[in-house]
Amino acid sequence: MGGGAYIRSMHRTYQYRLLPNKEQREALGRALAQTRYIYNSALDDRIQSYNNKKSASYLGLTYKTLTKFDQMKALTQWRKESFNGVKNDWLGAWVQHGALDRLDKAYQAFYRRVKSGGEKAGFPRFKGKRFWKSLDVPHHIGYQVVGNRVNIKGLGKLKIKMHRPLPEGHKQCGLTLTQDGKGWLVSMRVEIEAAPDKKLVMPENVVGVDMGIKRFVTTSLGEEKEKAVLGAYYDYEREYRKEERQLRLKQRAVERSKKASSTLDGCEGKNLAKRRKAVQRLHEKIARRRKDFHHKLSTILVDKCDALAFEDLRVKNMVRNTRLSKSIHDAGWSAFVNMCDYKADGAGKHCVTVDAKGTSQVCSACGAIVRKDLSERTHKCDCGVILDRDHNAAINIKKRAVDVLARYNSSDGKSGS
């Protein structure tokens, strides 16, 4: 390929478990404390700056409010100072800049919500110790990855459990260190060469997927072929429901510890911290199992199918049903569709979403509307078709996706899906 050729790229994030030693764990804890201090101080400065601007406007004066770049200049001066005999520049500058980046993103999201007017504005908050669990390094020059170690100033060479290699020819774009119930994770953002252009798809190679609660997915392939394709991942075991009793017991223990610690002048006892961590670890265990199921099933679907079609579900509206909301959240439909989307994109395949209206009510054979409530699980039409309700919906999803992909094919792949 010539030097002037343009190479399309895409961004991916690879997550690994960190294996820090005792000194590095202590350094990571100090880094969390320092970056949280920077975030809270910068937020306080911005609030004071806004109040000063209001006062100056009232007096007919002009006053420039603080920006992210003003605060970065102030951070450069602050790094030259010391606290308890330790210079503030013991931690890498890019890690400290990450705290200011997070504050700026919080403000931008706040302004966006205010302008949209459709949701709660949510002004940026001061962060307590329990709500600050990650360190951002927004630029690749803030760290070095050599073999199975990542070197960050102030934290040392942190060992990584490299359960899979990074892709060849990747370009580092930044990373995030996150503290969880088991220790620390590192999420590396990399830029890699994009997959080849998406191919034209024949209608018979499109697979419609209907997502549900009792059965996680029902495809347009039919039950026998579906079981052959999906194998052991035919259904989801509803991880939250399985652990619900244990979670209830652990949360009750937290509440008992809260009452006991309320007599200690507001200080939290050790038992409360331990029990909170037990609840956190159980939630993480549930999330990991759900994520593992999503990854395995999405990989199978993308490998076996040229094009996948899903309903464009409005999950926010669906969870208003108080009887089903917990099960809907447990299923994680949106996360699953996102996984299928980026995996299909990386494989040069299609993943489309179609309008969900009426997919269960319309007959997939004749197009007649057959009204059914949620308790009716079988589709029976006057034309003689008798199908499982979800299978009928999956066929309708496939038909709508074929129309979408036909427009893609007619434009020779120039407009994406």
Quaternary organization: single chain
Low-pLDDT regions: 1-6, 413-417
Separation of termini? 27 Å
Mean pLDDT: 86
- Please outline the major beta sheet: 7 strands, antiparallel
| Strand coverage percent | 15-25%
Choose one word for the global shape: globular
How much helix, percentage-wise, in residues?
A: 40-55%
Order of helices and strands: EHHEEHEEEEEEEEHHHHEHHHEEEH
Q: Could you tell me the number of beta strands?
A: 15
Strand order of the largest sheet: 4-8-9-1-7-6-5
Number of self-contained structural domains: 2
Instruction: From the alpha carbons, calculate the radius of gyration and give it in angstroms.
Output: 26 Å
**Number of alpha- plus pi-helical segments:** 11
Q: Structural class of the secondary elements?
A: alpha+beta
Give a nutshell description of this structure:
This protein is of the alpha+beta class and 417 residues long. Helices cover 44% and strands 18% of the residues. The strands form four sheets. A seven-stranded antiparallel beta sheet has the order 4-8-9-1-7-6-5.
Task: Please characterize this protein's 3D structure.
Helix 2 (68-78) runs antiparallel to helix 3. The chain is of the alpha+beta class and 417 residues long. 44% of the residues lie in helices and 18% in strands. It has eleven helices and 15 strands. Strands 4-8-9-1-7-6-5 form a seven-stranded antiparallel beta sheet. Strand 14 and strand 15 form a beta hairpin.
